[in-house]
Amino acid sequence: MVMVLSSLFESVDVGSIRVKNRIVMPPITTNYASMSGEVSDLLIRHYVERARGGVGMIIVEACSVHRYGRAFYCQLGAFNDGFKPGLARLANAIKSYNVAVFLQLFHAGRQTTSAISGAQPIAPSPIPCKTIRETPREMTLEDIEEIENSFTNAAYRAKTCGFDGVEIHGAHGYLISEFLSPYTNRRTDGYGGSLENRARFALEIVERIREKCGFSFTVGFRINGSDFIDGGLTIDESIKIAKMLEDVGVNIIHVSAGMYESREYIVQPMYFPRGLLIPLAERIKKEVSIPVIAVGRINDPKLAEDIVYHKRVDMVAMGRALIADPELPRKAFEGRLNDVRKCIACIDGCVGRLVYGFQVKCSVNPLKGLEGFINIEKTVKPKKALVIGAGPAGLEAARMLALRGHEVLVIDRNSDIGGALRLALKFKFKSELGELIDWYRIQLKNLNVKVLTGIEADEKYILSIKPDVVILASGSKPLTLSIPGSQFMYVVDDVLTGKIEVKDDVIIIGGGLIGCELAIHLASQGLKVTIVEAQDDIARDTPIQNKMALLKLLKEANVKIVLKAKPIEARNNCLIVEVDGNKEILKANSVILSIGRLKEDWLWWSLKNRVCELHIIGDAVNPGKIIDAVTDGFRIGITI
Ligand SMILES: Cc1cc2nc3c(=O)[nH]c(=O)nc-3n(C[C@H](O)[C@H](O)[C@H](O)COP(=O)(O)O)c2cc1C
Ligand code: SF4
User: Fold this and answer.
1) Minimum CA distance residue for ligand 2 atom 6
2) Active-site residue 183, yes or no?
3) ipTM entry
4) Has residue 278 been placed in a domain?
């Protein structure tokens, strides 16, 4: 057995427990609990899958300590003894894999709505969150007493259910974080004003838990290294708070960042570099003597090893990395680094669904959310399968078919596999998609899937192969716009494939995700870019974390945005648009269309009734995102 990442697999002492390695699964709310907050079978299978994969410590997702403390409809609860049997089942299931298990204790504060929590939200001060817009009730001293008790009782329940410890959620703009931050805490009593006063609520909670649960019970605290908001908590204050927490007996500090008004720092999109929050954790590590966990886009075991090896922090949390590949720790331990399917930080499948009240899934891991429901079984009737198109849908279909014992041939008209992913790679901030393509390349090779590129599949060619089943994953092409001067307009693919060269003033018609990304890409090359959007907002087709990051990047890149604008005519040096009934002439050396995609399904019509079994998947049916393509490829791969 090769073990190349030795630092990552050294044990570490946290409070009274020894953790077998340095990889932590941070809290990830899944919406898998019941509506009343009970542990469900799916929730247990989700954690067992990760525990089995070799992670050292699991911090179970945010668990509401109070019946009005929830921020999500199907959020876990620990606010009365009725939750104990489920929590005990969960803790024991995880511990049976020799994994340390913590429960994250949570109160939403102002970052919820009364529709979800069941009562008017509470906060240190009655300031509404700009993204929630519901004014919270200022907490009285009685409220403070009640909530401190709720945290204490929930911690005690966790202890009696077999959890090794608890993590107090003091980050991300939820209740405790609201007390800590000068941005949200404007109190003038003993719980507001000075840092000591703002920290009082958190410190009292820790002290009460210590008193009730004893000194052998391990207590962690999640803190923001920065709120990333003007007037919010900064690293200098966070360091001081961390020291105070250590003084009152906290055993481990977990350094995260952001609040709802700076959400892109809570769950960081692909526009941010890997490991962007490590310097914050590193600063805190230098000032305390208890272990410190770093988190945030640490999706590569080699990066994790590097962080621990250089003693920048003691442990690394790999949240979405473990959503994308629960076996990451075991693969890393065995030196099978190429086998790790990395999180691409797309946001779409996990938190992008959570914020709309759906269960967590994953763009690259189609089994996410189906743990225990699907067994990938060998087929009893192996077939000769031809997959046409090596984009994400075709690649996933080929992988699943081969895993199940079918003989698979993949053909693609391009010179390499990847389909639409390969085009997206041209954006610097999407370069990690190349690792997903490489992952498929390796998987297909290991599964003996034959891949032929540079082949335009026509009816004659396909029939000559005599396949038992054809899976058409022929993708999509950009939509065009029929207005006068359309010969002066190009599509996104023309730019990304290098078919055309864009110069000076560029207009992008369509302010969806791709249009915005193209704008940032071109602006970074020194071009003057304008987005023309028909609706009254841009980036409406992407989760809020991505949108918030994109808006900042567009601003930094000086991209001009013209909303509610209808293109009327393109000329060789301008685009004429109608805004509020008035015509405007926008200077343009290049006009690029980014208004959506059209399925490429013509082969379906010529193959229909000509092959024994024909399926069509992915963009060729309904142009969508990576998650849609991979899910569809997986679906067909397990059904044939
Ligand atoms: C779907 C989802 C749910 C999350 N739920 C929680 C939570 O319950 N408590 C918490 O402190 N952080 C939560 N986070 C933030 C993660 O713990 C982590 O800090 C973040 O995802 C960045 O780390 P990563 O890049 O390793 O995923 C959540 C993140 C995601 C993606
Ligand atoms: S959905 Fe995207 S961001 Fe979330 S875990 Fe999967 S790959 Fe990562």
Assistant:
1) 362
2) no
3) 1.00
4) yes
